[in-house]
Amino acid sequence: MRALLPLALFACTLAASAQETTPTAEQLAHLPQPELYDQPLATRLQQVADQAHALRADLPSFTCKEEGVSQVLRNDEVRKEVAFTATIRAVRLPDGRIEETQNLVTVNGKPANKHSSLPYNVHDAFTRVLTYGSAQYQPCYHYELDPRDAHRIVFHSRRPFNLACGNFPGTEGLIVFDDAGQVMHVERAIPPVESEDWPVPFAAVDMGTVQLGEKSYRLAQRLESERVEGKDTLREDVKFTECKLFTTSIRLLPGEEVPEENSPAPLKPR
User: Fold this and answer.
1) CA spacing 20 to 30 A to 41: which of 156, 194, 223, 252?
2) Mapping DSSP to helix (H, G, I), strand (E, B) and coil, where does residue 191 land?
3) In a domain, 161, yes or no
4) What are the backbone angles phi and psi of residue 177, rounded to the nearest 5°?
5) In terms of Cα–Cα distance, which of 159, 186, 189, 166 is closest to 174?
6) What pLDDT, on a 0 to 100 scale, did the predictor assign at position 250?
7) CA proximity to 117, closest of 241, 3, 239, 198
8) In whole angstroms, how far apart are CA 62 and each of 68, 101, 130, 184, 247?
9) Are residues 62 and 243 in contact, defined by beta-carbon separation less than 8 angstroms?
10) Residue-level pLDDT at 12
């Protein structure tokens, strides 16, 4: 059982070894041609593609409070449960990527320390949640509009499986939109495999509008995930609140005066 398991949810570099990776330029040349869809499905795909692009291109550095419960269950009985709070920091790097880090604040109501850990913990949902609908990855999936609800599209890995896509065979999920065309919910499932390097088999993210400075963004507000390891089911349910811009400041202190005896000798005129 691992204390901090990277969230391998959304078709990017999220797992340790069997990782879902962003295709290289060479791989992109071998991607299948995107399917052509009729309206209104094409409109839905354009909406999620636009929102995914906005997150990648425009999202600034920010922090959020994370509050949730991490559990280990066996035969539907809770064997271990840890309530925690943490600070999530998402920082845009010079190369344009957003790097997310987590700092535990409290564990079961007590201040966290360097020995604190969780039975199951996932992360990296903010910037990658819309990857399954991004323009770059749409050629890798087949999409259908839910005949019962025009606000939902379902997807699965295209067959035959294409290694250039960098995802996992058997991936399936759904994307839910609100009346304004904003993504409000994403689910992803892949077939479970007995490997610590394999991504989380099931995850679901609720999204909402968050104000960061003078602009608003669609960010994850709740994350549910589940993984089976042997006889145990690992489960986590967290919420993200109090999001704000992350800024750093530098305080310049006045320099100390150099003692007279340590002053450098004056330069001799030439």
Assistant:
1) 223
2) coil
3) yes
4) -110, 155
5) 186
6) 54
7) 3
8) 19, 11, 18, 20, 8
9) yes
10) 34
- The residue segments making up the domain with residue 234 are 35-248
> Tokens representing 254?
């006045």
Q: By the 8 A CB rule, do 140 and 20 touch? A: no
According to DSSP, the β-strands at 215-229 and 232-245 are antiparallel
List the single range of 35-39, 60-64, 89-93, 190-194 with lowest mean pLDDT.
190-194
Whether the CB-CB separation of 245 and 62 falls below 8 Å is answered with yes
Q: How many domains does the chain have?
A: 1
Q: pLDDT value at position 3?
A: 38
Pairing, β 172-177 against β 183-189:
antiparallel
The per-residue pLDDT for 239 is 97
| Environment class of 80 (CB within 10 Å of its CB; exposed 0-12, middle 13-18, buried 19+) | middle
pLDDT in tens, 199-219: 688 999 999 999 999 999 999
Both tokens of 165, joined, read 């896509």
pLDDT at 49: 94
Most confident option among 75-89, 122-136, 192-206, 246-260: 75-89
267 belongs to a structural domain: no
Residue 169 located in a structural domain: yes
Lowest mean pLDDT among 10-24, 65-79, 94-108, 206-220: 10-24
- Average confidence (pLDDT) over 24-51: 80
Q: Show the tokens assigned to 250.
A: 């530098």
Inside any domain, residue 160: yes
Whether residue 264 has pLDDT greater than 50: no
